[in-house]
Design a protein that fits this description.
Largest sheet: 5 strands, antiparallel
Radius of gyration: 22 Å
Oligomer: single chain
Structural class: mainly beta
CATH topology of the largest domain: Neuraminidase
Strand content: over 45%
Distance between the termini: 31 Å
Number of helices: 2
CATH class of the largest domain: Mainly Beta
Number of domains: 2
CATH architecture of the largest domain: 6 Propeller
Helix content: under 10%
Shape: globular
Length: about 475
């Protein structure tokens, strides 16, 4: 019935969001776990939340079974409702610090596990968007310890980085699968020096893979970066991103959109922990100066970053309110300028270790929270926090409403949609799949009269026919577009 109603609205204009719904901001906190044991999210290098289209995926580690196990939960409708908890691991040893990535319909989860008498990296995948899960796969086989994995995926290629002690000190290692996680290539050592390297984070855009980590080769901890321009086959030299000789820089998180790479981390250079940011506009070739994102006398730590088009989103935990709370900040212009901090949690307990993900216009945040006696997993969403890619390209007043055919069409992976407004109206521009299910909202705001264009990046979606629908006042029009891989 849901699909039938949505298809009716898609083709005949019968289903619309009201302006009030579209303008909603951060919605109330949602408690995702409810058991008499502690549940934790991972640190910032390993995203505990991922999303594609309307499906949101969350992973965490949980003590409810008498030892630490990996758990999973999904929302099929953009974070509005949630499935029951799914236990992903089942052994008598501890399994901790999961990271999740999605490349429809595949969902990939990695973690480290003590079932082999030392910590090793394991992976698990779902072939159907999180509905069912295949067996665990052991990714590392050595006599040392392997920790803190971070995963990214695009199409059938999956990339994993982690820290490893097989070389007598902590080094960063990498591994990839080119068949969607069925088989895996040999381990690749990314760092090679006699100091420790910790907390890697990985992101990718096309065939360019970006890795950041914290490194002690310079006496104190600094942030380092490395990239592969051929999908993980070969790697550049290490690049030192921070140069602060008297303090520590820790826990980096990386994200990328096209050729623009964004890195955040926590930094002690100001006498207490603050959140810092840096970007590259040429796929990691050159880097901007460090930018301080927080400015208060209390610690700000463990940032997580995500980007969609030119909008960058950062979350972290912050002690400015005499306890740890979750804070959020965004840049609407690719990291050039930043809006004010937004406090996301406000209760008498501690909130810790957030992760952020995006799908269409929605911003998703998950974290661990102690308000319920035990640590539990909480979630929050902003349904219009990521409206991106809209430009007014001509302020000359058109004679009538119109929605142009996207270009290029067919496209891979991005395309441009242009439309004209003869007067100012509240506008929604939405994308749907062939079943009539909403994929994303590119526009959901009041726009001035003129000709506008929006960009759509479909890199995480499979080839196929999609539809886009413009609603502006009483005007509604739908067109078809074709994604070809």
């Amino acid at each position: 019935m849901k699909n039938s109603l949505l298809l009716s609205g898609l083709f005949f204009g019968g289903l619309f969001l009201s302006p009030t719904d579209s303008h909603a901001q951060w919605q109330p906190d949602v408690r995702l776990t409810n058991d008499s044991a502690n549940s934790y999210t991972s640190l910032n290098n390993a995203w505990c939340i991922a999303s594609s289209g309307s499906v949101v995926h969350v992973v965490w580690w949980d003590f409810r079974d008498g030892n630490m196990e990996i758990y999973y939960k999904r929302s099929p409708d953009g974070g509005i409702s949630w499935s029951a908890d799914t236990r992903l691991t089942n052994n008598s040893s501890e399994s901790v610090d999961p990271s999740v990535a999605v490349s429809d319909p595949l969902v990939h989860v990695v973690w480290y596990d003590y079932r082999d008498t030392n910590y090793q990296i394991y992976s698990k995948r779902s072939p159907d968007g999180g509905i069912s899960w295949e067996a665990d796969t052991r990714l590392t086989i050595n006599d040392a310890q392997s920790y803190s994995p971070s995963v990214a995926a695009s199409g059938s290629v999956v990339h994993i980085v982690w820290e490893d002690t097989r070389d007598l000190n902590h080094e960063i290692y990498y591994k990839r699968s080119t068949d969607g996680g069925i088989s895996w290539e040999a381990d690749t050592r990314l760092t090679n020096h006699n100091a420790a390297s910790f907390s890697p984070s990985v992101a990718l855009s096309g065939s360019v893979v970006h890795v950041v980590w914290q490194d002690a080769r310079d006496v104190n901890w600094e942030i380092y970066y490395k990239r592969s321009t051929d999908g993980g086959i070969s790697w550049s030299a290490d690049t030192r991103l921070t140069i602060v000789d008297t303090t520590e820089s820790n826990y980096p998180s990386v994200t990328v959109s096209g050729s623009v790479v964004h890195v955040v981390w926590q930094d002690f250079r100001d006498g207490n922990m603050e959140i810092y940011y840096k970007r590259s506009t040429n796929a990691g070739g050159n880097w901007s100066a460090d930018e301080r994102l927080t400015n208060n006398p209390s610690p700000s730590s463990k940032p997580s970053v995500a980007v969609s088009g030119s909008v960058v989103h950062v979350v972290w935990d912050d002690y400015r309110d005499v306890k740890w709370d979750i804070y959020y900040k965004r840049s609407p212009d690719g990291g050039v300028s930043w809006e004010a901090d937004t406090r996301l949690t406000n209760n008498d307990a501690q909130s810790y270790s957030p992760s952020v993900a995006l799908s269409g216009s929605v911003v998703h945040v998950v974290w661990a929270d102690a308000r319920d006696v035990y640590w539990e997993i909480y979630y929050k969403r902003n349904p219009t926090g990521n409206v991106v890619g809209i430009k007014n390209i001509n302020s000359e007043i058109p004679r009538e409403f119109s929605l142009s055919q996207n270009y290029p069409n067919p496209f891979n992976p991005s395309t441009t949609i242009q439309f004209s407004l003869p007067r100012s109206e509240f506008v929604t521009l939405k994308l749907f799949n062939i079943l009539g299910e909403e994929i994303t909202a590119l526009v959901s705001k009041k726009l001035s009269a003129g000709t506008h264009q929006a960009e759509w990046d479909a890199r995480d979606l499979p080839s196929g026919v999609y539809f886009y629908r413009l609603q502006a006042g009483s005007f509604t029009q739908t067109r078809k577009l074709l994604l070809l891989r």
